[in-house]
Amino acid sequence: MSIAILKTGALATVQDAGRYDGAQWGVPRSGVMDIPAWLIGNLLVGNEPDQAVIEITLGGFKAQFETDCLIAVTGAIAPVTLDKQDIGQWRTVSVKAGQTLRVGFAETGARMFLCVSGGIEVPLVLGARATDLAGGFGGFQGRALKAGDALPLGEPQGPAPHASVRPPPRGDFLRILPGTEWSAFTIAAHQTLLSEAWVVTPDANRMGARLAGLSLPLAQPLEMTSHAVHPGVVQVPPSGQPILLMADAQTTGGYPKIAQVIRADLWRIGQYRPGEAIRFIEVTLGEALDTLSAQRRWLAQLETQLKWRASRST
Amino acid sequence: MNPVIQPLGDTALVLSVSATLEDQRRLWIMQKLLQQQFPAWWVVLGVGNLTVRFDPMIEDASVIEHGIELAWQRSQKRMEVASRHHDVPVVYGGKAGPDLARVAEHAGISPAQVVERHAAAQYVVFCIGFLPGFPYLGGLDPQLATPRLDKPRIKVPAGAVGIGGAQTGIYPSASPGGWNLIGHTDLRLFNPAMIPPALLAPGDTLRFVPTEVRA
Fold first, then answer.
1. How far apart are the two ends of chain B, measured CA to CA in Å?
2. What is the rounded distance in angstroms from the CA atom of residue B7 to the CA atom of residue A178?
3. Taking CB atoms and an 8 Å cutoff, what residues of chain B touch A263?
4. Model ipTM?
5. Which residues in chain B are contacts of A137 at CB distance < 8 A?
6. Between residues 100 and 139 of chain A, which touch chain B (CB distance below 8 Å)?
7. Residue B81: its pLDDT value, please?
8. What pLDDT was estimated at residue A10?
9. Between B10, B35, B193, which is nearest A285 by CB?
């Protein structure tokens, strides 16, 4: 029971929720860049929601199934075909052994998730199946996938709902709260951060995205010791050009943090392609928590619905 | 410096104290206290600061803040931190330490004296971060402080021993890096197959032991 990788595109890795306990040893979280897409994809194929999947960056991916299984491709919107037949996304699809899946280039968003019944069965390393690219462990042999890899699949876990889900819109903005060093920046820097369209540069990967735009100056030079950082932090190195930290962000850093993307919007940060512009909107803590609460409710209701449908499909 | 607690977004609180060894020692104790008392919190140590990450739908920030304040107060009573000492064998200079001469020149002493001073100090692990298993070490002889390279190397090998500004450390895995490389150790600092995966822990002490000095 396996999947043969024929083409990976820019980057394809095995990911799950990531390593939540690793920070004490300097181990980044890693894990999927878009938690809702991963969660829903797993539910669509009848998996427990925490299974490992393949995260595809920008597209250009091709794989052949060696076994009958169920799949769902979630995340960014891209042309997806099975033996050249359009199969769409965010829905349960039955696959026969020998069929070939192609994921073309993303039209909206940047990262797609190939979720397969049984999950990608790679060993747990430090409590997760996620690939730590910088550390070279976890995932499939601790590295990005390449053509010729054969990924083992786990046993299918339960009935699948055979359903489709409407993808949540990514939008063109990220909601932020002030970072711990917000007040160390000039008033002009605050205004610039909130008014500028920040273009994702080609210098963007799973660790972080360097954003191009005006410079964000500090009010005065700031000597900082190392402190914890995590996905969604907007940090500003001496160049004044902000960096938006992503899932593979190192656990500590030394640059001032001007802002933090709210928890409810973390799934969006990895869904921008190089060349696209991000706008930041400041919200209150209350708004951030209300948004998170609404998002959790939406996910919980979807989970209940999909499990109910799965139970009726047997 | 008075302790300050600030929010970082909707899911973290940051306690900042001073970057002295005395305060850092209290942070080590705090980390242990918090991990025992609140296993669901994610506690990350920095240098002179400690961050608690939490799920705001489950925990209330004011409860976390109170927990941090209490733990900081309790850390004042001198509790022993279980710590270990490590001797780190190092080959200095040559291909193992291509920037040894640069550090010597900056300090105005000979490469042999750089090695002597670097190996004379007893270092303390302030915290682990940046890379898996990477120790932030306190105790570098101020005369050895050397500015980072203008152009960082694309690849610094695992086991490289370097000086960056007023800090010295060991790269646990290959990575890009701008530190001046003065030597190399075969000691493995990080092994994901072990629990704990990091050889060093906050509060540990460390000495560099020269096994060879190359020109």
1. 45
2. 9
3. 9-11, 56
4. 0.93
5. 192
6. 125-126, 132, 134-138
7. 78
8. 95
9. B10
- Checking if the pLDDT of A300 tops 80, the result is yes
A221: pLDDT strictly greater than 90: no
pLDDT tens, A171-208? 999 999 999 999 999 999 999 999 999 999 998 999 99
- Phi/psi at A65 (5° precision): -90, 135
Q: Is A163 helix (H, G, I), strand (E, B) or coil?
A: coil
A35-44 vs A285-312: helix crossing angle, rounded to 10: 10
Q: Bridge partners of A252? A: A228
Q: How confident is the model at residue A66 (pLDDT cuts 50, 70, 90)?
A: very high
Which residues from chain B sit within 8 angstroms of residue A285, using beta carbons? 7, 10
The residue of chain A nearest to residue B166, with distances taken between CA atoms, is: A225
Please identify among residues 171-230 of chain A the ones whose CB lies closer than 8 Å to any CB of chain B: 176-177, 179-180, 225-228, 230
For residue A166, the model assigns a pLDDT of: 96
Which two tokens mark A224? 């900082």
3-state secondary structure of B184: strand
Q: Tell me the shortest Cα–Cα distance from B41 to chain A, in angstroms.
A: 9
**Does the pLDDT at position B70 exceed 90?**
yes
Q: Is B42 within 8 Å of A23 when comparing Cβ atoms?
A: yes
- Whether a cis peptide bond, with omega within 30° of 0, leads into B196 is yes
Cβ B46–A180 below 8 Å, yes or no?
Answer: no
CA closest to A256 among chain B residues? B8
pTM value is 0.94
Does position A314 have pLDDT exceeding 70, yes or no?
A: no
